[in-house]
Design brief:
With 178 residues, this protein is mostly beta strands. It has one domain: Sandwich (Jelly Rolls), CATH 2.60.120. Helix content is 0%, strand content 51%. It is built from no helices and 14 strands. Strand 9 (82-92) and strand 10 (98-107) form a beta hairpin.
């Protein structure tokens, strides 16, 4: 996890003020580095920690701030096409999970061994809280399309233990001043 925070700024006379509208106040990045295989089809599952267990969180410094959610998912492929659907959720305090966006990852290959990356960004504009906001991503795999090979990056049809180059899937959360 990488954290960057910019709190209230002081000018030369020592007066504190909040950054202007659209300024990044703080940013936190979470990454999953291992290869994760999920062969379940037509069932929704949480991605592994920290992408899918709610441990990716940010605590806004200002209740009027917006939260920019950004995610990059790396999906490997073995032997055939694959269609993965991802849903993104947030929760504040002891509330319930609220879905705020969804995206898809579709890959068709005529040769074995390929990685396809997909990303999404969403600006949450009306959370009105200074409590921690947690995020998670779930995955649903299409029947007949093979398995999810999260972070698998190889040049041949091989197993997860045979990656050519390591990669990470990420969630980045940024507090943006309103």
């Amino acid at each position: 996890m990488t954290i960057l925070k910019v709190n209230a700024i002081q000018n030369t006379s020592g007066t504190s003020y909040l950054p202007s509208t659209g300024t990044i106040i703080q940013s936190v990045q979470y990454e999953y580095r291992d290869v994760f295989e999920n062969s379940a089809v037509n069932s929704e599952y949480d991605l592994p920690s920290p992408l899918g267990d709610g441990s990716a969180s940010i605590t806004p410094l200002n209740s009027s701030s917006r939260i920019l959610f950004s995610s990059v998912i790396h999906g490997g492929l073995e032997t055939t096409w694959r269609n993965n659907f991802f849903k993104c959720f947030y929760i504040t305090g002891s509330g319930s999970w609220t879905q705020f966006t969804a995206f898809a990852h579709y890959t068709w290959v005529t040769t074995n061994g390929l990685m396809n990356s997909v990303g999404t960004e969403f600006l949450l504009t009306s959370l009105s809280t200074t409590s921690a906001v947690a995020f998670k991503i779930t995955q649903i795999g299409h029947a007949n399309g093979g398995a999810l090979h999260l972070n698998q990056n190889n040049f041949t049809d091989s197993t997860s233990a045979n990656n050519t180059t390591k990669c990470s899937s990420t969630i980045t959360l940024s507090e943006i001043s309103a």
